Amino acid sequence: MRHLNDGTLRRIYDEPLALTATDQAHFDACPECKARFGSIAQAAVATTALLNVPGFAPEAAAALKSVRARIRTEEAARPPRWYERWLDRTSPRWRPMATPAVAVLLAATLVTGLAATGAIQSLIRIFEPQTIAAVQVSPSDFANPSAVLDYGQVKWLPDAPKVQQLSDAAVAATQSGLPVLMPASLPQGVSGPVSFGVVSHAAGSLTFDAQRLKASAATKGVKVNPMPSSIDGSTLVVNAGPALVEVWGLSGNTSQAQAPTLVIAQTRVPTVDSTGASAADLETYLLSQPGVPPDIAAQVRAIKDPTSTLPLPIPKGLATTEPVQVNGVSGLLIKAVIGAGVVWVKNGVIYAVGGQLTPDQVLAIATTLH
Amino acid sequence: MLQMEAWRPTVTPAPMSAINQRVPDPFEQLFLQEYPKVVAIAYRVLADRPAAEDVAQEVFIKFHRSYSPTSEHASGWLHSAAVHSALNVIRGERRRAQRETAHALDPARAPVASPERLVEEAEQRREVRRALSRLPQRTAALLMLRHSGLSYAEVATALGMKVGNVGTLLRRAEDALRKEVKRATSE
């Protein structure tokens, strides 16, 4: 059989999962190709070292601002387009139509309209995660009655999120507005049709009510700290989803419970806006409630920036976590007895890959998603 | 987490208008998605952060002038423009540097990071960039796109070649660069 060419061997070094089954079989059995691969890999490593540069975190938001400013300046300086010249010559009565002032006016009307209905007061973004932190929990932590106390009025705006099961990738992508991600290749043991779950975008609000909390605590017979005035009456608006989940290993024709072999999930980061209470107020108050296990409280408090960090509960003793670099951002690698997973946040989307796989397999999938 | 548990009780529908929706415009979406890659490509070529940020911003402004952010060729165009613009910068520098005296690279390396070591590393990076600027443009572009973390498929799209050819050309490009660096340091 013909040996693998240099290009294929070079690609194995970068994208091992892109290898075809035939090439893989040849490579596994061919000492000559393996030896050539060794020297090609060495050359690749040497080149990587040559081209190495100190790391830095790009600041996309700041760059966008500056690019926008430059575009605005350019647009202001460019000669008027034909239709703008035409509008300029027409009756002065219509002239405002040609100016951006119309857009500003429309926006202002919209905003005041919303403000008048009380929908927008002064919303402050208090939570928009950019990173993830593990918080070790044990199941007993959630067996506590105070966890289900009534803190106030809850509303879904307009409906609770809907979950749909789909088998068509294109439909799943359209429904969720998220691209269907596929690994470069599937590891051994993962096969079969992939099914999709789409969770719709949902928004909800919670208006804190000190009286209701007091009443519900009295009914449950638990003691709570009184709600501070900075929190009482303020509303949190939570925006979450949409989410797209891709599942392998659930064949439709068997009735027995199966664990999926591979799951790839993505969701837009949830955000929380507050009309009054700040993230710090809420964290201090909620963590001080009796019934919150002190070690969980300590772990959450230890999160440096609660407004941009998503705490991820990890069952104590069943899984361990470690930080990893995934697709240019830092993520969290979760290792468990039954499998592994990796979670990262990039460009406003939370990604998760996991299954009955080794940590290396999970990372390989995560880094070749396309 | 605990707040979420407290969410379950009463559910009342409210008007859709009350949702605080954020719908980013397509250019912003494209920018936030591609800027990290575009700046990484420029930075890998230039080894200079402010210069890389300048190149990346210039690339997006050029893109905005001529193309739609929803075009399916947007990413490929941005990656290609980033690597070629950055390579043009180092080529310009090479022409400037040709008039100056070149510094020889000291092969002795200190075992720990010291000021001397940092200077040395910076000098080595400059040396590698000079070697890079002497490679054919397409060879250098392919090498830098891949070493900026682009997948083979992305490299192929950006340079308009077949995915199957990326490995072979990359292998040759890596050899060419190492030869060029060796030649320069032994001179």
Structure report:
The complex is a heterodimer of chains A (370) and B (187). Chain A contains eleven helices and 15 strands. With 370 residues, chain A is of the alpha+beta class. Chain A starts with 5 loop residues before the first helix and ends with a helix. Chains A and B meet through helix 1, helix 3, helix 4, strand 3 and strand 6 of A and helix 1, strand 1, helix 2, helix 3 and helix 6 of B.
Summarize, please.
The complex is a heterodimer of chains A (370) and B (187). With 370 residues, chain A is α+β, with helices and mostly antiparallel strands. Chain A has three domains: 6-48, no CATH class; 81-120, no CATH class; 124-368, no CATH class.
- Output the number of helix runs of chain B: 8
Strand order of the largest sheet of chain A: 4-5-8-9-15-14-13-12
Q: Which class of secondary structure composition applies to the elements of chain B?
A: mainly alpha
CATH architecture level-2 label of chain B: Up-down Bundle
Structural domain tally of chain B: 1
- Rg of chain A, Cα atoms, Å: 27 Å
Strand content of chain A: 25-35%
* Element-by-element helix/strand order of chain A: HHHHHHEEEEHEEHEEEEHHEEEEEH
> Secondary-structure element sequence of chain B?
HEHHHHHHH
Helix content of chain B: over 70%
Distance between the termini of chain B: 64 Å
Low-confidence stretches of chain A: 86-122, 252-257
- Average pLDDT number of chain A: 76
Q: Number of DSSP strands of chain A?
A: 15
Domain unit count of chain A: 3
Shape of chain B: globular
β-strand amount of chain B: under 5%
Most residues in contact, chain pair and counts:
A-B, 71 and 64 residues
Strand runs of chain B, count:
1
Instruction: Indicate the structural class of chain A.
Output: alpha+beta
Proportion in helices of chain A: 25-40%
